[in-house]
Amino acid sequence: MRKILSTPAVAPTARFFSQGVRVGNTLYVSGQVGMDKDGNVVGKGDMKAQTRQTIENIKAVLAAAGATLDDVVKVTMYVTDMSLAPLARDVRMEYFTKNPPASTGVEVKGLAHPDLLIEIEAIAVVDA
């Protein structure tokens, strides 16, 4: 069975995708970015601030399914400048304090808004 995950704590998504989807005991969180619930970029030019907001958004989507960051098993991080990735990793280490998830990092030419520096998607597994 498939359940759409949605929370008002995160900016609404375009109508053609969901903030997240639960299938069985697996949660797929769509790529989250450094935007607040009103769609404003947080920390323009500040990788650490945008990474914090991005992970807070992931937390909010997970919470809509009763999950936490401890349930995350895989993240994919997209950055617009790989030289800033260590700053994002520092913030990630503050949030993923227990078993860190499997991870992939990719440099991309751009994201959905020109002021965004990072996007992270996540997969979590919870008790059924």
Characteristic terms for this protein:
6 strands, 128 residues, 60s Ribosomal Protein L30, Chain: A, 2 helices, globular, 6-stranded mixed beta sheet, alpha+beta
What does this structure look like?
There is one protein chain. The mean pLDDT is 95. The protein has two helices and six strands, in the order E-E-E-H-E-H-E-E. It has a single domain, classed as RutC-like (60s Ribosomal Protein L30, Chain: A, 2-Layer Sandwich). A hairpin with a 2-residue loop joins strand 2 (20-23) and strand 3 (26-33). Strands 1-2-3-6-4-5 form a six-stranded mixed β-sheet, with helices on one face. It is of the alpha+beta class and 128 residues long. It is globular, with a radius of gyration of 14 Å. The termini are close together. The longest helix is centred in the middle third of the chain and has 17 residues, at 47-63.
Q: What is shown here, in short?
A:
This protein is an alpha+beta fold and 128 residues long.
The level-1 CATH class: Alpha Beta
Question: What would you give as the CATH superfamily?
Answer: RutC-like
* Order of neighbouring strands in the sheet with most strands: 1-2-3-6-4-5
For the record, the CATH architecture stands as: 2-Layer Sandwich
The number of helical elements comes to 2
Instruction: Report the count of strand segments.
Output: 6
Q: C-alpha Rg, in Å?
A: 14 Å
* DSSP strand content: 25-35%
* Biggest sheet statistics: 6 strands, mixed
